[in-house]
Design a protein that fits this description.
It contains six helices and six strands; from the N terminus they run E-H-E-H-E-H-E-H-E-E-H-H. The protein is of the alpha/beta class.
Length: 190
């Protein structure tokens, strides 16, 4: 399965990016495309008709993926401004998240493990103009990430790894079902 993996942080050190990089190594049977949003400019309607090339590249990569995983940090009980800006870009003139299966995960140094940002991101991703299909079976919140991810970017807690494997396995089943449904819907509209 081809999965676009987006870390919702523009910080150079990001536990969410490290989590996705671990997943790309650990789930090597899948084609996980790491999308870096650090160079994405803040969304501005003045760009109408001239999307920045970095955004056009992300649009192509997300559109060509079978599914998307977004690792959302949490700042002040919310998603980051960088992630919100990216979603604005991907729902203004281009719409690669429409009908796309999306799994939201998160890593945090705090006890709540980015739980509030994940709830907020779900609401944003189902809004008109975005229209993504959000995986709801398992919720992956990594608390105390600084003690679970080592300097090499490996998850050191076996229970966390097993739960992550379960979440990804179930998400892949969900993504396949959503993609079949979307194809059938499009064929029915012809």
């Amino acid at each position: 399965m081809k999965i676009a993996a987006i870390a919702g942080s523009n910080a150079n050190h990001s536990y969410n990016r490290m989590l996705l990089e671990f997943m790309a190594r650990h789930f090597s049977d899948d084609d996980i495309d790491m999308i870096d949003i650090r160079q994405v400019p803040m969304f501005n309607e003045d760009y109408k008709g001239k999307i920045p090339e970095v955004v056009a590249d992300i649009d192509r990569r997300v559109a060509s993926a079978d599914a998307v995983i977004i690792a959302s940090p949490e700042y002040n009980h919310s998603i980051t401004s960088a992630l919100k800006s990216l979603v604005e870009w991907l729902s203004y003139e281009v719409h690669p998240l429409q009908d796309k299966p999306v799994m939201i995960i998160g890593a945090s140094t705090h006890d709540q493990g980015a739980s509030r940002s994940q709830v907020q991101l779900r609401d944003i991703l189902i809004s008109p103009g975005v229209n993504a299909y959000i995986f709801q079976n398992e919720e992956f919140f990594m608390s105390d990430a600084a003690s679970i991810i080592d300097e090499e970017g490996n998850i050191t807690n076996e229970t966390t790894i097993h739960f992550l494997e379960k979440c990804v396995r179930e998400f892949k089943h969900y993504a396949k079902a959503i993609n079949r449904m979307v194809v059938e819907k499009k064929e029915g509209n012809k």
